[in-house]
Write a structure and sequence with these properties.
The chain is mainly α. The chain contains 18 helices and eight strands. It folds into three domains: 157 residues, Fumarase C, Chain B, domain 1; 251 residues, Fumarase/aspartase (Central domain) (Fumarase C, Chain A, domain 2), CATH 1.20.200.10; 57 residues, Fumarase/aspartase (C-terminal domain) (Ribonucleotide Reductase Protein R1, domain 1).
Length: 491
């Protein structure tokens, strides 16, 4: 059966300025009558009132997909009535649409149901609070669809119905892996675009000389084509590593419930929910061979985090190289010119800073720091569950989000627009005393070293010293100082 979402307002509109009372094992609590969240969310908001942050909407969106698949599987196995199934599907679809709108516009309006997803990302209970928050919002949205008031859980219950055949301990990690797969794909695409830009620069500046440096000191000439080519190869490796991470994330523990044993589910449900997850998400989701393993062990997140750290390492190297090459413009290397985007100083007129490089560097610092947090959290689980998945999820989703957005800006506003100062870089390369290395095979190391020393003390070129001592003819010298000869092996 194909389910078509309907507008909530067509079914029921809550009368404002009323309260309802909900109860749990701790006692009663008064809530606004029109609140889409319930008592578990309210308690979590009191217990974890750290700051204004809320759980990632990417995770919430993935969790809605999981809840939808679970409702379909419960219906398939005869564990759920059609009206409840339809109400849950409607709620998941309408809430997902609201999240998409909020994400697209970067704005959550006062009347948006997205406001009801309000638990802090750093919560105790291994994610129980956000799971209950989603259960309650789905239930109350579904109640409105059915023509009832929020809180009338005898008609659609957050736990008995929305959370049927589930536990936070299989819902949260399954949703997190789904959210991360979407991020993996987005980041891989972003890296592909950056790699393409770097390869275009490699082609454009294939024959432009610059001074190569080791330990920041003059080494041997290279071409800018080789420089950008090396950058592109590094990003290519990161792109492939990130892309392959999806394989690890596809294995989920849905159906394992609390500890991976599958209590309160059936084999039919486990197979059905896996199939529905594939259909709902469009991803190659697979059931883990041992649900208990996928429930208690968090090493896959450390692996993914490590790949992000590797990417951050390469981005830092590229960015810092660009900052150094751009230094100046009058008293630095000034080998390239980065596009100006904003004034760089409140006291120094005309100063322009490499702000896109500095932005990407700070993102990389955060990613590397997040890797340490993820590693500690993943290693600190005990027995059948890791209670620190909320921190792991928050750190990874933020790292992906910053990298995807940051790399796109870095690509568009730094790499694509940079210009090589070819005349200046060629002059610097050709005036370096390190060019003496190009004559070692004919002069020997000691003589070549003496030539370099003499050129340095007399402030002249290697060519002039070679001609002075008649070591080689001018034609022989020029042949060895051509860009092709200086930057490639002999043919």
């Amino acid at each position: 059966m194909t389910f078509t979402p309907k507008n909530v307002s067509q079914k029921y509109k809550v009368t404002p300025n009323q309260n309802r009372t909900e109860r749990d094992m701790i006692g009663p609590l008064s809530l606004h009558s029109d609140a889409l969240y319930g008592i578990h969310t309210a308690r979590a908001n009191t217990n974890f009132a750290l700051d204004h942050q809320t759980t990632s909407l990417d995770l919430i969106s993935a969790m809605l997909k999981v809840k939808k698949a679970c409702a379909l599987a419960n219906y398939d196995t005869g564990e759920m009535e059609v009206d409840k199934k339809d109400a849950i599907l409607h709620a998941c679809d309408s809430l997902s649409l609201a999240i998409d709108n909020a994400t697209t516009t970067c704005k959550i309006t006062n009347d948006s149901p997205v406001e009801a997803f309000a638990t802090h990302p750093l919560q105790g209970g291994a994610g129980t609070s956000v799971n209950m928050n989603v259960n309650e919002v789905i239930a109350n949205t579904g109640l409105l669809f059915l023509g009832h008031q929020p809180g009338q859980y005898q008609f659609l219950h957050p736990i008995d119905d929305v959370n049927k055949s589930q536990s936070t301990n299989d819902i949260y990690p399954t949703a997190l892996k789904i959210a991360l797969i979407y991020k993996v794909r987005a980041l891989a695409d972003t890296l592909a675009a950056l790699q393409n830009t770097l390869q275009e620069k490699e082609t454009t500046y294939a024959n432009v000389l610059k001074m190569g440096r080791t330990q920041l000191m003059d080494a041997l000439p290279v071409t800018f084509g080789q420089v950008f080519g090396a950058f592109a190869r590094a990003i290519s490796r990161d792109r492939w590593r990130i892309y392959k991470a999806e394989e690890r994330l596809r294995e989920v523990n849905i159906g394992g419930t609390a500890v991976g044993t599958g209590l309160n589910t059936s084999v039919d449900y486990i197979y059905a929910v896996t199939q529905h997850l594939q259909d709902v998400t469009g991803l190659g989701i697979a059931r883990a061979d041992l649900l208990m393993d996928a429930t208690q062990n968090a090493d896959v997140y450390v692996e993914v985090s490590g790949l992000l750290k590797s990417l951050a390492t390469n981005l830092l190297k590229i960015s810092n190289d660009l900052r150094l090459m751009n230094s100046g413009p009058m008293a630095g290397l000034s080998e390239i010119s980065l596009e100006a985007h904003q004034s760089g100083s409140s006291i120094m007129p005309g100063k322009v800073n490499p702000v896109m490089c500095e932005m990407i560097n700070q993102i990389c610092f955060r990613v590397i720091g997040a890797d340490a947090a993820v590693t500690l959290a993943a290693s600190s689980g005990q027995f059948e569950l890791n209670p620190y998945l909320p921190l792991i999820g928050d750190e990874l989703l933020k790292a992906f989000t910053y990298l995807i957005g940051g790399i796109k800006q870095f690509d568009d506003k730094c790499i694509k627009t940079l210009v090589v100062n070819d005349k200046h870089t060629t002059e610097m390369a050709m005036s370096s005393y390190s060019l003496a290395a190009a004559f070692i095979d004919v002069l020997g190391y000691d003589t070549a070293s003496a030539v370099a020393k003499e050129a340095y003390h007399e402030q002249t070129s290697i060519k002039m010293v070679l001609l002075k001592h008649q070591y080689l003819t001018e034609e022989e010298i020029d042949a060895r100082l051509k860009p092709h000869a200086l930057t490639q092996p002999k043919r």
